[in-house]
Each structure stands twice: as C-alpha cells, then as structure tokens.
Amino acid sequence: MLNFAMETAREAGNILLEKFGRKIEISKKGEINLVTEADLASEKFIVDKIKTYYPRHSILAEESGEAVLSGEGTWKWIIDPLDGTTNFAHGYPCFCVNIALEHEGRIVLAVTYDPTRDEMFSAEKGRGASLNNKRISVSETAKLGDSLLVTGFPYDISERPHFAKDFANMLLASRAVRRDGSAAIDLAYVACGRFDGFWEEGLNPWDVAAGVLLIEEAGGKVSNYDGSEFSVYRPPICASNGIIHSEILGVLS
Fold this sequence. Notes:
By secondary structure, the protein is α+β, with helices and mostly antiparallel strands. The protein has helices at 2-19, 37-53, 85-89, 163-173, 183-191, 205-217, 245-252; strands at residues 26-28, 34-36, 58-61, 65-67, 75-83, 96-103, 106-114, 119-124, 129-131, 134-135, 148-151, 176-178, 197-200, 221-223, 237-240. The protein folds into 2 domains: 2-135, Fructose-1,6-Bisphosphatase, Chain A, domain 1 (2-Layer Sandwich); 144-252, D-Maltodextrin-Binding Protein, domain 2 (3-Layer(aba) Sandwich). The longest helix is centred in the first third of the chain and has 18 residues, at 2-19.
C-alpha cells in the first residue's frame, strides 16, 4: 500500500506541476480560503485511483468531503490533493500532496510529496520514516531557545484572540519562527530535522494525518496543547523533536 500511495502522490504532484505558474481558475471557500482547478484535478485523480485499486475503502478528501465507498469502514484514506493552495495560486513554490491511510482509527501509512523539490516523505506504522527512501529522524536540539520553529495562521485568525499572544511568546522563546503556508510540509520538515517544532490551530484531518505519523516514526512527539493524546479530528496540534516538547507546551499554556 505504501508504494501505491507514493506512486499516486507523485502522479498527482505532476498534475500540480503542469498547472503551476499558469493562469488557472480560482474560487473561494471562504474569505481567504481558496480552491483552484489544480486542487480539483489532483483530488479527482487520487480518488479515482483509490476507487480502482481499493474499491471497498472509504475516503476523506478536502474538496469532496467524506465518501464512504463501502461498509468496510476500518480503512480510510485521508487526502489533501494540494496543501498550500494560496502559495500555489500566487506562484510561490511551497505546496504538496498529502495522503494518509487510517486503519481502525489509527494512521498506519503516510506520504507527503513536494513536487517542486521532488521530495517524497513516507512512513509506515512501526517501520520508521523516510525522505526519498533514506531514513530520517527528528533534530537533536535540546533547548527551546536554540530551536527553529514553524507555524501557520488559521483562516479564522480574527476569531482566535490568543493566537497573536502565542506567536509573540514563541518568537521570544525560540531562536526564530517561520511561516511557510503549508502545514503538511511544516510537519514533514519537523520529521526530518529541518524544524524543531510546530504548533497551529484550526487545521483539518487532511492537513495533519500524514505529518503526525511521519514525526512519530522519525522519533518525535505530537500532542494537543495541554499535552494530551492528539487526534487528527481534534486540533490544535503541537509537534516537536520530543526533547523541547514540554517547553513549547509551557509557552502555549
């Protein structure tokens, strides 16, 4: 199944690259939440391929929502056909395809593919995480003050009065904070040690499902802001190399 997911993500990524930098149709799902023809084309390709190879599995996809294709509800594909749509629409090369597989409520397979850099992040439950088939691990940064963090701005930021305070506090507590506009890539970068930690509110299952498994299989830690067990269906999310996790939670508290 992992090879299937990787191949599917790569092909969907090629669809995105064919449309990247060209004039495309853009519509709004919200005031600043966009959807493009590239999102829709990528999602249709992925969904159609899953229906062909795994017709009894269910699917949760960003643009089409949840479609239970059979009574076999123990397997669910969670898909973001284009994470970083705003970046894509503006010609900023920071976006990816996100595919995860859930079995009996647990994420067991994850793929995040960045077509602009040809970087394929992948993981299987209990078998580690990889980047282009080479094993990866989280960073060894031991102090929050020495860390490079990353976050994202929720679409409903005006309705989240604590976000600006958390952002400012994290800036002061860390070496630096980045904001790239793709939660899936942010999480993958934590998994491979490029970032030391990540936090964000208001995300959806398709944004984080793959990244959570990547980080855990790379030796990191993922939790809710209060330190409790994280669920892809119940944001917010805090992810890190594990070493500085309690310090990040301390700032968020």
